[in-house]
Amino acid sequence: MMTNAETPEIAAWRQLASSPTVREQQVAFTCATGVPLTLSPASAQALADGTFCVKGCLGAPSGEACRHKLLQAEKRAVTRLAPVQYSCPSGLLKILVPVFINGRHAGILLAGPLALQSLDAARLGQLTARLEKTGLGGRVEQLQSAWRYSPRLSADKCRAAETLLRMFGKYLEAAGLHYLQAQPAPISPLLKKIEAFLAGCRDEPVSLKEVAASVSLSPCHFCAVFKKQTGVTFSRYRVRQRLAKARELLGDPARRISEVAFASGFESIPYFNRAFRQEFNCSPTEYRSRVVGHNPSQSNHNPGVAQNAADRFNNQVMNLPLAARPAHDFMQLNAASQPFAQP
């Protein structure tokens, strides 16, 4: 779930990082290379919500030095748009790969620590002297322990590991973009107000002017905004609402077709029949005979007739949020005969 402080790209990263498929690839990389792999959000977000933590392998306060090194490396990687290798305070190597989702820095792949050489006496002396200069003196035992338990790779295997990380990063970028594209379009605050107003007076006559006034817009401006944000005109949307209501009422065989038409907000029986047929490719009577068997409260008088594809499609569409609904076939409706025609 996306919090108020994070972007859709960070939310996509979190979903990916916690998915079984990505977890499996993460474990597979470590098993194949022997190198630990961490998936973390971009540091700006991780620091903000407290999920970013580096304890440091040399004991306190080496974690602050580790974090400083990592943030510097991440900045270089984001600037270069490429992986970066850097040394942590203990002299071990780490590989950082930035991941961009929809063009925004969303996360990092951090592999390591690992060693390219052995910790001989000369190297131990150099690292010990460097630690003294950074205020981390007297950590020889911890330094040796860190090297002892870190994998050692040849230069060729290190390059191969970096290649795998780049490929993994590209996969995450593509998967993240796919995730974002699959999300329903958010409903704007304006559309929420419109839908709330319409929901409150669904069974009552309401004019375009009244709806526009409810959101403090002129009728002309309201029509333009509504069409731009939904892909359909307000009048077509209102017809769709009435047809959805009519389909519900048709499930009750005790209601006459004319009663269903008027109860749904249609003022003309011929117009209701025409709009219903144009939308669902059948008359209200035919529709009732097809769907009555799908109503749990009714017996199935015609079990051999399945609901047609148009009905199934519209059942799915009407359950979508307004901003996510396609224009569909409302272009077929006769706008001139609609009671809420645009000015």
Overall shape: it is elongated
End-to-end span in angstroms? 42 Å
Can you give the mean pLDDT? 78
Q: What's the assembly state of these chains?
A: single chain
Stretches with pLDDT under 50, minimum 5 residues: 294-343
Radius of gyration: 31 Å
How many runs of DSSP E, i.e. beta strands? 4
Give the name of the CATH architecture of the largest domain.
2-Layer Sandwich
Strand order of the largest sheet: 1-4-3-2
Helix content range: 40-55%
The fraction of residues assigned to DSSP E strands is 5-15%
Which short descriptors sum up this protein?
15 helices; alpha+beta; Beta-Lactamase; 8% strand; elongated; disordered C terminus; Arc Repressor Mutant, subunit A
Q: Any overview of this molecule?
A:
The chain is an alpha+beta fold. The protein has two domains: 8-182, 2-Layer Sandwich (Beta-Lactamase), CATH 3.30.450; 189-337, Homeodomain-like (Arc Repressor Mutant, subunit A, Orthogonal Bundle). It is built from 15 helices and four strands. The chain has a four-stranded antiparallel sheet, with helices on both faces. α2 packs antiparallel against α7 (155-182) and α11 (234-250) crosses α12. The longest helix is centred in the middle third of the chain and has 28 residues, at 155-182. The two termini are 42 Å apart.
Give a short summary of the structure.
This protein has 343 residues and is α+β, with helices and mostly antiparallel strands. It has helices at 8-17, 20-33, 43-49, 62-80, 121-133, 140-148, 155-182, 189-200, 208-214, 219-230, 234-250, 257-263, 269-280, 284-291, 309-318, and strands spanning 37-41, 84-87, 93-101, 104-114.
